[in-house]
């Protein structure tokens, strides 16, 4: 009887199964998850502290043991064996199961937290109640759905971070930046904000603040209730507010100039942290087509314009008109926004015009004209800023971008669209950093084109869908807005062609100097 031969490999069989240790590790991890599921269905565990600890240790420990069993006995070097043959990593049945489960989880988290057990005025139930002891230990209060989410998010980054380090243990850069994202997630995103909540009392209240979350990623940072809290919290609050503003205008531009957007997207950010660790097995699923690149540029910059409009409207809505009380009045604020945008736009067109592609020039002009006309329209007519109420804009942004795009699509669809859908198509922070990386940064990936054997590993594993091989074949520097500097293209290259470097701005973008076979009139050289 004939069987269907599904293996396309020329060199050997794809891995058929997992070894015994991996099976045991999977069982332990699944038992840990089962505890959470049972809690979700309102099983009342008698000793919550014990059960929660056991569950988290089982999930984290199972993942780490699985990774040790997978990579421990193998030589150092990248192991992506059989990635296109496994159902989970090749958009098969299990990929859809995981994608739908994650998506449903996000839908419940954002819009139906009561099904997770959240009770507004009373004792929590279900899954949220299981996390109450940990929440009380850290911040002194009962858990919320966001505490549950933050804890599981941190456990995922830590456990899969160790897996990532084992997998890429031959590469110092990959190890260092993974330690970095694990540190920032555990310390800055989880522990510090939770402990800061402990300082709050009836007379003193700091807003929940993940210090590494910079506007426009934390689009809500300058909403009135937060600014009020910052100001009423005295010196500490004021320092945090100033830090939030300095992060945008001083820290981010300096670090991006020196190192490119990788300092944030691959070393600090929580979204990037999850994508690089838990999302690592899905990085090859990113869309590499040119049309995806075009869509990416329009969508991500539209989100950026949206968040600029929304934040301007929100801040404008709560500022006063009386200049004798505050120097920052509505008018001063609007003029400042217009001046900053005009300066950025004019500087780009005067100094960097040649480095912008045609559609980027048209897009920049279009967006600039729209924003400035809306500000001018409001200024001269007194009509509602940007034609909509600030609150409507804020709610629309929070729903469409903050929840649906970044959570439901961004993480829920890891197994289908790859791990960086949000970072590539939706994150306004990535848009700003990418803009600067392309035009005002020392970062580039250099290519030693003569060594390239066109194997395509680099393009396959670029999570941002960049066709790295096309640049390598030409020996051209890679200076792309979307590149998050993860370094995986360089790590998987069997020929050492690619190198992430910081260097002088001159001749950084060298595409004009590349000679392609098609472009060169070889007879000219023969005749000379
Ligand atoms: S080009 Fe390389 S460093 Fe940049 S995002 Fe792609 S894989 Fe990462
Ligand atoms: S992985 Fe290296 S050798 Fe292979 S195509 Fe990319 S640059 Fe060339």
TrEMBL record:
The chain crosses the membrane at residues 24-43, 49-72, 93-112, 146-166, 178-196, 236-257, 298-319, 331-351, 363-381, 396-417. GO terms for molecular function: 4 iron, 4 sulfur cluster binding; metal ion binding. The keyword Iron applies. It comes from Aequorivita aquimaris. This is FeS-binding protein. The keyword Coiled coil does not apply. InterPro entries: 4Fe4S_Fe-S-bd (IPR017896), 4Fe4S_Fe_S_CS (IPR017900), Electron_Trans/Redox (IPR051684). GO terms for cellular component: plasma membrane. Keywords: 4Fe-4S, Electron transport, Iron, Iron-sulfur, Membrane, Metal-binding, Transmembrane, Transmembrane helix, Transport. Residues 443-471, 474-503 form the 4Fe-4S ferredoxin-type domain.
């Amino acid at each position: 009887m004939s069987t269907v031969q599904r293996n396309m490999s020329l060199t050997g069989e794809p891995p058929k199964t997992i070894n015994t240790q991996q099976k045991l590790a999977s069982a332990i991890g699944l038992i840990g998850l089962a505890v959470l599921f049972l809690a979700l269905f309102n099983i009342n565990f008698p000793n919550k502290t014990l059960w929660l600890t056991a569950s988290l240790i089982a999930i984290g420990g199972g993942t780490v043991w699985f990774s040790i069993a997978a990579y421990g006995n193998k030589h150092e070097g990248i192991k992506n064996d059989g990635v296109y043959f496994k159902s989970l990593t090749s958009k098969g049945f299990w990929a859809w199961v995981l994608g739908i489960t994650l998506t449903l989880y996000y839908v419940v988290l954002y819009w139906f937290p009561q099904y997770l057990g959240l009770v507004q005025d009373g004792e929590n139930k279900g899954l949220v109640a299981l996390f109450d002891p940990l929440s009380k230990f850290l911040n002194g209060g009962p858990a919320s759905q966001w505490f549950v989410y933050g804890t599981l998010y941190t456990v995922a980054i830590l456990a899969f971070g160790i897996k990532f380090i084992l997998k890429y243990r031959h590469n110092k850069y990959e190890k260092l930046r993974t330690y970095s994202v694990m540190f920032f997630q555990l310390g800055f995103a989880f522990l510090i904000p939770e402990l800061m909540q402990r300082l709050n009392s009836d007379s003193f209240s700091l807003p929940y603040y993940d210090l590494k979350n910079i506007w426009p990623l934390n689009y809500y940072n300058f909403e009135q209730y937060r600014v009020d809290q910052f100001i009423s919290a005295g010196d500490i609050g004021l320092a945090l507010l100033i830090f939030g503003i300095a992060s945008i205008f001083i820290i981010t531009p300096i670090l991006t100039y020196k190192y490119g957007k990788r300092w944030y997207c691959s070393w600090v950010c929580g979204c990037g942290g999850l994508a690089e660790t838990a999302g690592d097995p899905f990085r090859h699923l990113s869309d590499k087509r040119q049309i995806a690149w075009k869509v990416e540029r329009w969508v991500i910059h539209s989100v950026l314009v949206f968040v600029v409009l929304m934040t301007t409207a929100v801040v404008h809505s709560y500022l006063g008109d009386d200049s004798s009380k505050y120097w920052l009045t509505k008018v001063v604020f609007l003029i400042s926004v217009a001046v900053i945008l005009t300066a950025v736009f004019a500087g780009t067109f005067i100094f960097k015009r040649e480095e912008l592609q045609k559609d980027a020039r048209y897009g920049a002009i279009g967006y600039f004209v729209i924003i400035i006309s809306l500000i001018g329209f409001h200024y001269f007519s007194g009509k509602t800023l940007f034609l909509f109420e600030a609150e409507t804009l804020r709610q629309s942004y929070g729903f469409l971008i903050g929840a649906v795009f970044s959570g439901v699509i961004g993480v829920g669809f890891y197994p289908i669209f790859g791990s960086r859908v949000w970072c590539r198509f939706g994150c306004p922070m990535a848009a700003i950093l990418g803009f600067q990386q392309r035009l005002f940064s020392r970062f580039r990936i250099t290519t030693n084109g003569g060594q390239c054997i066109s194997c395509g590993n680099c393009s396959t594993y670029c999570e941002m869908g960049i066709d790295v091989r096309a640049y390598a074949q030409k020996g051209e520097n890679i200076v792309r807005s979307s590149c998050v500097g993860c370094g995986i293209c360089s790590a998987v290259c069997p020929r050492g062609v690619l190198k992430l470097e910081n260097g002088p701005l001159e001749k950084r973008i060298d595409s004009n100097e590349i000679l392609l076979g098609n472009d060169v009139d070889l007879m000219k050289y023969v005749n000379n």
